[in-house]
Amino acid sequence: MDETSLLRRARTDIPERTPASVARGRAALLAQIEAETPYAPFAALGDDTSFTPLPVRRRRRRTVAWTGFTALGAGALTIALIGGNVFGVGGWHGGADPAAADMLNAAAVATLETTDPQLAPGQYLRVRNDAQYMTPAWLDEDVDAAPTPDLSTAEAQYYMSRERWEVFRPADRNDTWWMIQCRRSVAQTFGPKSELAAQREALMTEGPIGHLIEMPGGRIKYDLPDGATEMGNPRSGFTVPGGSSDDFSQLPLEPSELLAEIYRLSAGSGPSPDGEALVWIADTLRGGAVPAEYRAAMYQAAALIPGVTVTDGQATLNGTTGTAIGRDETNNSFRQEIIIDPATGQFIGERQVALEGYRASAATPALPPGTVVGWSAVTTEIVDAAPTDVSICSA
């Protein structure tokens, strides 16, 4: 869906435009900008026409998610997104590739036209996360043969492990949440030594198949050796220095302000500020509890990150297909991607891709560039009761 089609939802007097004509119009405008030639969109109004700029108003932070979005509101946001896509927010400064920006901005509009799940008392939002990721392990014989008696010089083996967890968020977020954490299992190995390392991993074979964890107010309760308890960080939220928070009203909704805040919150982490900003967005969306207006703002913020491109038009995670939008990180040769459905705004999941291949061990050939070394898929639904066991972990 192009910008004109979105705008026509709010106005009916917009002439029909084909995708090709929209692309030509954008290209012509960008050419004017690059050539620094005068551009007079209001010339037809006459030379004596004057305009008085409206006062700038800082958008107030909301504490609740939008439950709907009018056609007029969608049209106004579409105009803003078109302007932001061409000129940037707060001035021309580049940002994502135009195709990626189009996808992200379309997803933002679609997200605001949906309704967040409305939970009745006693109901829960069930957030399921299925994931696979490359996991290191060390064989005792390799550690013994290493130049020094520690893991820093020992040969590591790698295999793909599978993880599943589910969070049950109550209608009243201050009530008790529940989480099911299933035992990890082996998804894929790479040669005999990789398989042997995975078989020896005690976490894969010993103990219960899963744990049912009580989380008062969304925070994990830990039992300390002295008999006291400690409340850990919430499972569904966003990262802040030294921990995490689930109060999304702390975040600004204006995209450039939100991106600036993301840079601040993730400062000092990851191989680059731009790369870590996209990782922060992916990690936050993976929690499955981001209100619609903040999901839309995060899509728009991602559209402002330099180097973000469309990386896969048909990316499938756990059986669901969407568009992969990501950024190559040259400092560590990996790419972070988020997978979305631009037509609905649905966040499907995220994944990491090795850009220069990946070697599971010295005894195996390197996996080819483009190998997916980690992914997680998110699904949500409303349920009428909290879990009482971990039987889902045996499925």
SSE topology:
Elements: H1 3-8, H2 19-35, H3 71-87, H4 98-112, E1 124-137, H5 140-144, E2 157-170, E3 176-182, E4 185-188, H6 192-200, H7 202-205, E5 210-216, E6 219-223, E7 229-234, E8 238-240, E9 243-245, H8 255-265, H9 273-286, H10 292-302, E10 308-317, E11 320-329, E12 334-341, E13 346-354, E14 372-383
Antiparallel strand pairs: 1-2, 1-14, 2-3, 2-4, 3-5, 6-7, 8-9, 10-11, 11-12, 12-13, 13-14
Helix pairs in contact: 3-4, 4-10, 8-10, 9-10
Description:
The chain has 395 residues and is α+β, with helices and mostly antiparallel strands. It has a domain of 271 residues. Helices cover 28% and strands 28% of the residues. The strands form 3 sheets. Strands 1, 2, 3, 4, 5, 10, 11, 12, 13 and 14 form a 10-stranded antiparallel sheet that branches. It has a two-stranded antiparallel sheet with strand order 6-7. It has a two-stranded antiparallel sheet with strand order 8-9. A hairpin with a 5-residue loop joins strand 2 and strand 3. Helix 3 packs antiparallel against helix 4 and helix 4 runs antiparallel to helix 10. The longest helix is centred in the first third of the chain and has 17 residues. The chain is globular and about 60 Å long. The two termini are 39 Å apart.
Keywords:
alpha+beta; 395 residues; ten-stranded antiparallel beta sheet; globular; 14 strands; single chain; two-stranded antiparallel sheet; disordered N terminus
Explain briefly what this protein structure is.
It contains ten helices and 14 strands. It is an alpha+beta fold. The chain has a domain of 271 residues.
